[in-house]
Amino acid sequence: MIPPGSCTPDEHVLHRRLFLKGLAASGAAAVTSFAGLFTNPVFAQAAERAQKKVILLWLCGAPSQFETWDPKPGRPSSGPFGSIPTSVPGVHFSSLMPRCATIAHQLNIVRCMHTKQSEHLQGINLLTRGNPDRAGFTRPTLGAAVSAALGHLDTALPNFILLDPNPEGNEFKEYKASDLAGWLGPGHAPVRLGGSYTQLGRAADALSDDRESRDALRRFFARKYENERQSRTAAAQNAAFEKVKGLMASADLFDLAKLPEKDRARYGPGTFGLHTLMARDLVAKGAPFVMVANGMPWDNHVFQHEIHQMLVPELDRILHCLITDLEDRGMLDHTLVIAMGEFGRTPWINASRGRDHYPNAWSMMMTGCGLKRGVVVGGTDADGVDPDGRSFNEQNLFATIFTALGIDPYAEYELPGMPTFHRVEDRAEPIREVLA
Q1: Cα separations in angstroms, 44 against 11, 14, 35, 75, 406
Q2: How many angstroms separate the CA atoms of 240 and 404, rounded?
Q3: Among the listed ranges 55-69, 151-165, 169-183, which one has the minimum average pLDDT value?
Q4: Would you say residue 389 has pLDDT above 80?
Q5: Which of 383, 382, 387, 338 is nearest to 362 (CA)?
Q6: Which helix (H) or strand (E) holds 290?
Q7: Is 96 helix (H, G, I), strand (E, B) or coil?
Q8: Fold designation for 46-200+256-434
Q9: What are the tens digits of pLDDT across the range 212-268?
Q10: How far apart are CA 157 and CA 284, in angstroms?
């Protein structure tokens, strides 16, 4: 019997290092001799997974489902905005989303999310980690889990990138990078850019040869110390240095001023749009996971309608640009795009003309990466108070995401000396309606 988490005998058919070594030694003349390798199912599955990327648009503060994906025109829960038909017959979005309405056939909307955390920090924890907290243990976020499953630690471009325009002013300020990686360790922590984390570049007086010599010496002593002491702290420091070195080599990809001018105009002048455009280019260059946060503007406890009237059209434009760009470039089939916050908003308006936190029934969007398209899953009752049938929680969502990416959602993490943890606990079912 093979222990959980161990490699299977078939996986020994292909060894990545030996394959690459053989490929380098063989030269171009022998390329045709590898043709049969691509028929090997283990290699084919690994190659398919390696192509898959994720762009997570994190809508900090939580948008209202009523002003986006699940309008209730004419009902007490509705605001002043109507609904409009979409390219999917019988499906309506908020009138604030005319662009997304034209590409609804490319999107999947889940209208029956039901979660149990109603405060921002706890909600973010739940919806970025995919399982409830377990006291004493820090579960990795989705980006870290995807980095571990699909990324490579020896590549220049970071495997997990967090673009956050306001890191000092939203709930992510509570997290260190190591918190987001959890027990997977610093090698899978995000490179975080935005706000005060924007300076990329080398010292002007650092000559290339001198810099390389210093780096080689540092690497030698650091590895020696790590190996002799078996030090997790040294390993963390070494991982950080390697990550920064790769980041320096990719610095131009993180320069907002170098984004194509025509694209900048389409995505809009705001940082959220420009970061989303940057995410498009980063996944095109091979980054497995890019998370784009938009600060904390959606938390509209006051003046809900006025603020959403500004925010939703921006989201509508950005999503339309991103989805159509990925489709036009042939990238949508292997790029999973997710747009969501940590919960929804109340079906009622409070005394300050705002909507409060509401995890009981809310909506989110996902598309690409081999999912079906144009599917609306579930719904809510007449006023959006409760799901009108089945509902899905964070575990169902993560099981769906991992399945779409070709990652086993129920695999155990290899954590010597720790209790058993799985990518998705309780063998929660994925949302099968959106799976191809």
Answers
A1: 11, 10, 12, 51, 12
A2: 30
A3: 169-183
A4: yes
A5: 387
A6: strand 289-293
A7: coil
A8: Alkaline Phosphatase, subunit A (3.40.720)
A9: 666 666 666 666 665 666 555 555 556 656 666 666 667 778 888 899 999 999 999
A10: 11
